Structures are given as C-alpha cells and as structure tokens.
User: What shape does this take?
Amino acid sequence: MSQTIDRTRPPKPGKQSQMLFPTFALHTMKNGIPVYVVENHAQPYISLQIVIRSGASSDGELPGLAEFTSNLLLSGAGKMSAQELAEEIDYLGASLDASAGRDETTIGLGVLSGFLPRALSIMADVVLRPTFPADEVQRERKQSIAALKQHRSDPAYLASVQFRREIHGDAPYGREIDGNEDSLRKINRAECSRYHQTYFTAGNAFFVAAGDVQVPEFLEMLEEHFGQWGGDRPERMSFAPVPGTGLPRIVIVDRPDSVQSALRVGAPGLARRDPDYIAMITINTLFGGYFNSRINNNLRERNGYTYGARSLVDSLLMPGTISVAASVGTGVTEAALREIFNELESITAEPVSETELEMVKSYIIGSQALQIETPGQVASFVRAIALFGLPHDYYQRFPAEVRELTREQLLDVARRYMRPDRMVGVIAGDARTIREKLEDICPVKVVNERGEEITV
Amino acid sequence: MTPTLPDFPPSRTYPLRIDIAAPPFTGFTLANGLRVIFCPDHSTPMVTINVLYHVGSKNEERGRTGFAHLFEHLMFDGSQHVERGGYDRFCTSVGGDNNAFTSSDITDYYISLPADRLALGLWLESDRMAGFAIQEVSLVTQKNVVIEEKRQSTDDVPYGDATIAMRELAYDPSHPYSWEPIGSIEDINAAQMDDVRAFYQRFYIPSNAMLVIAGDFDAVQARKLVEGYFGPIPAGDPVVRPMVNPELERHGARVRIDSPIIPFNAVFLGYHAPGIHHHDIYPLELLTAIMAEGESSRLYQTLEYTQEIASEAECFIDDGELGSIFYVYAVAQQANVMPRELEEALRLEIRRVAEEGVSERELEKVKNKKVTRVVHSLQSISNRAERLAYFSMLLNDPLLAFREADLYAGVSVEDIRRVARRYLLGAEPNVVEYYQASRKKRRANAAGAS
Assistant: This one.
C-alpha cells in the first residue's frame, strides 16, 4: 500500500515555485488623492483604509489629541448620531474604526463587497463631516481616562511607554499616544475640530483598498463621496533624532506585587527609509526576531526564564528604536538582564556564522511569502510603501536584497545600533525586590507610572 | 449578485444572502484510523498542515492539571529522528510558521510552509506521532516556560484569573472542566517523565487525530506521502472519554477576589449552557452578539454609553463538548462603582432580553456579522485547515467549516427568547466579584459562598 519512505532523514524539497509579491495598482482621484488597489476576488470581502499622514507626532502641546480626535470620528458625523452610526455599521456586519499611530491616522473599513456602497457613504461622513458633539466629547474623556488606567495596569505597557520616554525624551515619539490625565482633561471640542481641519485634508490622505474591488465602479464611488474633499498638505513635523546616551542605565517602573518583570532593553534606532533598514531587520531577526533567535533560545529554550523573548525594530518616518522585550519571573530579573547584555556583547563582537546567516535569510524570504496570502495582508505592505515613500517595487526586490547581505554588513550594523554600552534597560516590576541586584549591573533609577522619579 | 441597500432609516431590515464558495475538499481514513482531509487551493504557493489531537485538559486528572498544555510544549522538543529544537529549526529555516494551542477538549498543531516543502512538514508531523523521544531536560525547561506563560497570561494580568475562579465555582472539583487548560503551578511542577510517556501513548495516536492539508499541493502526490509517513504508525488503543454529567454542575455560588493589580472593580457572571453538540448553542451564540458585539449592542449601549458605569461590558460563550459557560461581565469605569452595581445592571439586561425578547432587526444584524466573519476568516488557508479539522473532529461534519453561517440563518427571535429564558432566567449564575485592593491582600471567599 505505502511506498517506502525513509523516516530517518528530512525529505528533499519539491519543485520550487516562486512567491512573487502581488501586483497592485495606483490610481489618482481628480483632487489628487492616491488610491492603491490590491484586487482579489476570491471572497466577497473588501477592506479599505483611509490613511491621514499625521498622527500622534502632531499632538503638539496636548498629548493624546490625535487619538482622541480619531475616537470621536465615529461619535457623530453628517446627520447621524453616535448611536445611529453604530447601528448602521453593525447592521451591515461591517467593522469601521479609527485610530492614531505616531506618524499617521487610519480609518479602516471591512465589509462584504455588496455592502460597500452604503458603508462608503457612512465612511465619508465619518472622515469628512464629524460633528464632535459636546456630550460625546465628555463621554470620550471619561472613557479615555478609564482606558488609560486600564492600560497602565499592564506591565508590558508601562515598560514600553517608559522605554520610549527614555529614548526620545520630550520629542513627539517619547509621548503616550493615548495621552495623560492632564492632557485628556484639557482636550475639548475646539481642539479636536481644529486638529481635524488642519490634518484631515485631501493633500494629506491616501486610500488603500484590497479584496473584491471592481475598479471602475469603485473609483466612481470614491469620486462621488470624496471628490469634493480639498485642502493642502499641512507642514510636516520634523524633529531631530535623540543622540545615544553613551552609558548603560536601568530604569524601574515600580509595580509593587508584580510576579513578573516586563523588560525592555534598547537604544535609538533608524528611520524606515534608512538604507540600513533591511540589514537591520535581518540582524535583528537573527538576534531576537523569530523563535529560533539567539535571545529566545537563550532566555526561553535554554534557561526557561520566560514564555517568550524577542527583539524589535520600531522604524517610523523619523528614527525609532531597537529593543529586546520579555516578561520574566521576578526572581530571575537580574539573570535575564545579564543574559541579554551577554547576547548584545556577542552580536557586536564577531560576525554571525554562515549557518545562522543562511537560516535567517531563508526564514525572512520564506516568511515574507507566507505574509502575503490574503488581500488584507498585501494591503498592509502597500500601505507601508505609500506611508514611508518606498519605491513601488520595494517588496519585489526585497528577497534579492536580503539574499545579498554579508556577515560583515550585519556586523557593521550591529556595531552601530546594538552596542551594549548604549543601552537603556527599562523594567516594569516590583522595585523593592529587584532593585538591589540590578545595581550591580549599572546605575538604577526608580520611577512611577507617569515617569516621575520616586524612592522605594 | 450585489445586494442593494436602500438608504437610511435603519428601522427596516434587509436580510443578507451571501453564498460562501466552499472550496472542494476530500477525505479518507488510513487503516490505523487517522482521518485525513485535503483542501487544495492553488492561488498562493503555500501549504498548511493542521494536526488536531482529540485530547485536552478534560482528559487530565486532579493533581496533574495543566498537563495537556505542558505536553503540547514538549511536542516541539524532539522526536525519534528530529533532535531537540530541530522542529523549529527545520520549519523556520525554510521560512515556515508553526504554532499550537490547547483547550479543554483539543490540542491543535499547525505548520505553514512554502508549497515545495509539504514533504518536510509531513515528515516532522508524522515523526512526532510515530514514536516517543521526549527527554527529561525538555520537561524541566518547559515546566519553567509554562509557569512563566501562566504568570504572563493570567496571574499578572488584571482579571486574568476570572475564568479560573469561575470554573472552580461552576463545577464540582471532580469535573474535568473545573480547571483551566493552563492548570496550577503546583501541578505543572509535579509532572514526571512517566506521566509524559503514558499521556503520549494514550492520546497521541493516529486514531485520535485528524490531519488536514490545505493550500497548493497535488492530491495524488500528497496521498502517497501521507500513506508513507503516517500509514505505518500503530493505531493505539481507543480513547475513553469523560462523559457529560450535569450532577457535577453548580449554580448560584459566589467568590470575592481582592486584587492589587486591577484598575477597577469588576464582576463576572457565568450561566451553564449546553455543549457544542446541542442545537441551542447556535441561538445562544447569536445572543452573545446581540448582548455585546459592536457599539450598537445592548451592553455597550446601556452600561457603557448611557449609564457610564462600565469601561468594558462583554458577553461570550466558553463552549465545550461537556457543556459551556455563558459569560456576561463588566469592568467599572470609575473607582467608586461597586461590583454589586455592575451585577444589577447586567442582570437587568439579561432579564430584559429573556422577558421581552429581541427584534427581527437585532437578530438580522448579528446574522450579518456571523456571515461577514466566516467570509473574512476563509481568506486564509491556515484558518480553513483549522476550521476543517475542528468541525470534522468534534462535530463530524467538515462542511460546517464553510457552512457554519447556515446554522445561524435558521434561528428565529422565538429561539433567542426561549434559550434566554431557559438558560439565563432558569438558573442562578455563578458570580466572580473583583474588588480593587491595596497591596498584600489575597483572595478570600465571601460569606455565603457555596
């Protein structure tokens, strides 16, 4: 019945078929808004994003303003109240939400293609004609303050917020996207309205549509609903990258009773358009970006300190951060931190092995292929092309660029961005229990959840 | 083709009819009892292999809770011809992706690979089904990893232990649903190599598994590979499964948890509901959506929007083969809102829906949501594979992977009212109350808890 199969060794690969990044089309509306379309008619479903090229970095003196404003878009628009909007969207079985990132604000729709016309007219109201009713502003304020309190009960949130404060200081990337108690009390209807008028302009927007899109009809619908949208591109935020500190240091965000410590160890990173970006994500993947990485093998598989440890490259319009993240048992905090510093030492000391390099290259190229399966996934790559101004063939060329990287190039990038003596360690955890031991590693400061220094 | 929608006002209803294209699939069973489903789709050059074992935390014993999940971790740690750590190395070095989860009823593994690596995936999956090779060093390490997983996902997360506390109230300690799949730290630490071997021999056998391959592959070639890799594995002994025993279900119990890590007080109500084989589960599922899905839902509109007492008000079913728990819960919006106030508001909404029923439009709305969700999830090959494995193993009907929405289409407003009355008004819920506490106060039973 069965053919003989040799179980003792791995089978050879079959005939290779290349996974190419799917094509997408770029159309331009009469008022100049770019419309990116990824067509795929396998399921009767469409996702549509309207992206505004301004986000929390444009909060100005009121941290949280971009997020607050975007939350209010669905609380009254055109002739509809918050309740009527919710009822209509839910009835269509659709999802419609708005949220601010640091560089951008996204209004995202997911809907069965047959309901697109109705959903699109609602979306146009939400984006172009929000009414910011006074009672909804009040309600949103209470909800945002409660949500902030909820977020701050999460140690991983506390660690990443404090980590960004340490790296970016007072620059826009150093602030919380969801604001703070002070700013949330100050934000009012006039501020939201002003923010909307300034940044929600045709010159500052692009569309990404993916799925069961019938192109000519779709473009006609966009002209009908968004053709009258005007306004230029507002002045672009720019701020200087924060210089590295030159000294390793540790900051504890005190969380009494914590049974785990949420760790972030990192340094300033690079902008998304930086020519080093692909080399950076490659060395990062090898270091902590996948299950087989040095960091995860060390902290999880060898030592059992954590459920999972990883490292991330957070690259934005302006330089972001690189960091290692893990939640470890309170008792092994110091040991885990030392292991992270050891791994940073070794990745900056000598080139990675050929075997490691080959494995990570195949992984990155292969997993890229698995990540472009659904139209929505493809759309997220197209969105990055549009947002960061990458070449249109960026992802077609990506596999070849990864393949060409050398051990020396990776070492060079590691030495510029991952030096252990440039690192800041941030730990959300029980300061009383962990502080003393950490002082053996480097100077330690203890802060509260708002980042103010305290004594314990 | 295209459903047309008249303009506002929203008072009218427009039933949605979408034909979900079910991709062709075929099934067969090997002589050793392994059930196999093929679901080819050549649109992208990738394949997913999903292996579902019909074992979960309900097959554990008291004193060894958390074992099925701990075992899932060990399955990645070496088999007869794959060294420790090799599974992940083989998978990731070709750009693949893999993971697994354990519930009360099942343990599900998947691996997604470039299409030309199907044989590699079948080799890896069959080798860990074919023979036992787990080493003690893996057990020692993975115990620690799982304990940190528990801390990260339940102990150190606000309300993360709510379902643990609810199961303890809702079931007699001898009922295998009285503990969560993650188990207790004490039991995880107690696990021995003998337990590991015995568990493997009892449950990780072809006749207790379902293999689904979805994506870009040739069915003839794949069948040869499946027969070659999985065919020689011995069938194993039939698995004896725990049976439903309503005697072990508890009602009307209450526990108070004083927690220093929660931002606000909260309350969780849990009602007993039938298991996944009972047809009432479909109207109950729709009822959870009517209660809490989307901003037009009842709990959002009342507790969060109008009364402004909750920052979160949700409803869901934790469903299983032996029975389900229908949850409603709310987290306060301000420090001065007490659990009793949230509980009264939740109970009022439960009473309203059971006594007054729901409107046709409300029902139509949540049916639309169901269809949309199914369509959306079917875009992904790995979702298709997982759904095929789940529906064929537990409900013996793979077609439901694509036709699930049909089961909901037949539900009427009368059905909704009937199940709301029967399961939500007919019995007292079990209640978990959370109070914000200062440091170093721990869980204590409230007076009158049963």
Observations:
- Chain A touches chain B through 92 residues (CB under 8 Å).
- Chain A has two domains: 25-226, 249-447.
- The longest strand of chain A covers residues 260-268.
- Chain A is about 40% helix and 20% strand.
